[in-house]
Amino acid sequence: MTDIEATIREAFEHTEYNLGDVAVNRRQVRVPVRQEGADPDALRAVIEEALGAEALAAVTVTTERIAGEDTVGTVVSFRYRG
């Protein structure tokens, strides 16, 4: 588990959101949230608080099927400037 992944998982531990498999590929990070219709601003705020707002670039929030599951969830993707 990368430091970024561990930090994000820890940040979401005490929220109402359940995460799927956080993926880190070089500096691209993908955070799948299993709850459909999760508040994009709230998700971004949790990640910004954990990593620092200056560490995030090109943040996108989409609704899609979570890999291999029947669940439709919210996915936050961003570039990490760490």
3D shape: globular
Task: Output the structural class.
Answer: alpha+beta
Largest sheet: 4 strands, antiparallel
What is the radius of gyration computed over CA atoms, rounded to a whole number of angstroms?
12 Å
Describe this structure in words.
With 82 residues, the protein is an alpha+beta fold. 27% of the residues lie in helices and 34% in strands. A 4-stranded antiparallel sheet has the order 1-2-4-3, covered by helices on one side. 18% of the residues are buried. The mean pLDDT is 90.
Question: What is this structure's SSE topology?
Answer:
Layout: H1 3-12, E1 23-25, E2 28-33, H2 40-51, E3 56-65, E4 72-80
Antiparallel strand pairs: 1-2, 2-4, 3-4
Helix pairs in contact: 1-2
Task: Describe the structure concisely for a colleague.
The protein is an alpha+beta fold. The chain has helices spanning 3-12, 40-51, and strands at 23-25, 28-33, 56-65, 72-80.
